[in-house]
Write a structure and sequence with these properties.
By secondary structure, the chain is of the alpha+beta class. The chain has four helices and six strands, in the order ααββββαββα. Helices cover 26% and strands 27% of the residues.
Length: 161
């Protein structure tokens, strides 16, 4: 037995109440990224990987933490270290990187195929992820990466430098 016996009430229910139920969704907050937030660095990674024995050192930094890993794959050695960092330390770290220059920085070919060591930088903003391999040949922009590496080495324990 149908819940609504009168045909006219069925039409009224269908025409007015059903659309009202479906239109009562919660409004999703809009993601309005301003220029300040879209050019804000959210993640930094610096890695050195390669060589005959498979050496690697990977440093990852976010707004609140730093992680370092190192090892040699041929010898199956691996060490990992992590620590919290302050907001002031993060600001000092990212101040050396000029976000407006990130699209202009050039990478070079990988050296791993000839038993070389590749240096890789990854810098993320809310809009884009920038990845550079062996960018030290870009003598115009590399000094900011060198300054970043120097600052990172000051944060790391001696065995990860």
């Amino acid at each position: 037995m149908p819940a609504i016996k009168n045909f006219g009430l069925r039409i009224l229910f269908s025409a007015f109440l059903l659309p009202a139920f479906f239109s009562c969704d919660k409004k999703k907050p809009e993601q309005n990224l301003t220029d300040k937030n879209s050019s804000e660095i959210t993640f930094i990674s610096v890695s050195n990987i390669g060589g005959k024995l498979g050496h690697y050192r990977i440093i990852k930094v976010t707004k609140d933490s730093i992680t370092a890993e190192k090892g040699i794959t041929a010898r199956k050695t691996h060490k990992k270290w992590n620590s919290a960092i302050s907001a002031q330390t993060w600001k000092q770290l990212v101040s050396s990187v000029h976000v407006k220059d990130l699209d202009r920085i050039k990478s070079s070919p990988s050296m791993q195929s000839i038993d070389g060591l590749d240096e890789t930088f990854q810098i993320r903003t809310p809009k884009k992820s920038h990845l550079y391999v062996n960018s030290y040949v870009d003598t115009i922009h590399y000094p900011q990466f060198q300054h970043l590496k120097d600052h990172l080495n000051q944060l790391l324990p001696q065995e990860y430098q």
